[in-house]
Specification:
mainly alpha, about 80% helix
């Protein structure tokens, strides 16, 4: 879901058909829809697992944001590798749905959490614009915020699946 949203936003920005106002409405609409989706998914988990996932997501997000402020490591060139890892994760998720194994789901959740934390690093560095060739234009900041929002949302869902696997 997150990948498709990023793909559609990228095509719209590439075509130049979206203004800032349209993107703000899109952010509001996606926030409402994903909030309802997240609430209905979290209802299937224990309250302790949800709260642990919220706390871990907040701490990891702030930690990764602090990590991106340092100038030594640039991860923006890894976006092609991340696309391949995401597609492998998608295929592995289909395999987990077919085989119905608890350990496969735990591994799927752990790998998904790792991949989306790297996505969060890359998108935050793109928004900060450390290098000229990988910097976003000032008109694309709403798109960048939307990418970071989807990364955090996906990270939380994988982490919730990892923490609350018992139910």
């Amino acid at each position: 879901m997150g990948f498709l949203a990023k793909y559609c936003d990228g095509i719209a920005l590439w075509a130049g058909n979206c203004s800032g106002t349209v993107l703000l409405y899109e952010v509001n609409c996606k926030t409402i829809c994903e909030g309802m989706l997240l609430g209905s998914i979290a209802a299937f988990f224990d309250a302790d697992a949800v709260m642990w996932s919220v706390g871990a997501t907040a701490s990891v997000t702030f930690g990764l944001a602090a990590f991106t402020l340092q100038k030594k490591c640039d991860l923006t060139i890894t976006s092609g590798i991340l696309l391949i890892l995401y597609l492998v994760l998608l295929i592995y998720g289909c395999l987990c749905a077919i085989l119905q194994s608890m350990w496969l789901r735990i591994i799927h959740a752990a790998v998904g959490t790792l991949i989306f934390s790297i996505y969060l690093l890359v998108d935050t560095q793109l928004m900060l614009g450390k290098r000229d060739q990988y910097r976003l234009n000032p008109n694309e900041y709403i798109f960048a915020v939307l990418n970071i929002y989807i990364d955090i949302f996906s990270f939380f869902l994988f982490l919730l699946q990892f923490v609350g696997w018992r139910k």
